Request: fold
Amino acid sequence: MEFHHLLKRIVQDGNTHAKWLNTLSFMENAGARKISKCEHPVMVTLIQLKHAAEEHRHAYYLKKQIGKIDPELCKTYENKELLAPIATRQYLHSLDIKACRYLQYVFQLTKEELKYAAYLFVTYAIEVRADELYPVYQEILTEESSKIMVKSIILEEEGHLEEMINQLNEFSENWQLHADHILEIEKDLHQQWINAITEEVAQLDYA
Reply:
């Protein structure tokens, strides 16, 4: 199922749409927690704090949008309230582990340096993905005349990507070479996640 078609199918069913919003909220929240976990005990930059705060706000905003469908739906992040919960939980975690393995191999970093490098490269990969995913989602919301909107998230994610590129330029002059490798890792994991969601949504058609 092509991504645009998959999202259209999701948005047209209230319960599934609520789960999709909750799944995105879960991932934004997981991203925010990972950014905070990567912080140095004392050398924390303003941009890191800003990113963590904004990702948390995205998680809250998406969760709040569920109320426009039904306030009683998806109140937690339990498996039954997420789409493809296993793949969803593994996605960011696997990206983090594989990226750390690669970055340690190429840069030979200390524990704190590796945390910061992982923050830079993993966040960059996620922002590149967000820049693709949210505009398609918004396009479908507009087509369906939905009360739900993600335009504010799109604007902030674009700003995040620019900030990550600035930080990566300071980190290494060859950052793009390494970022491309991590983007390939993310691409595979993202495809696994989408495949799992597609399978779950397809089953609804036969339910």
Observations:
- The chain has a mean pLDDT of 94.
- The radius of gyration is 17 Å.
- Residues 111-143 form the longest helix (33 residues).
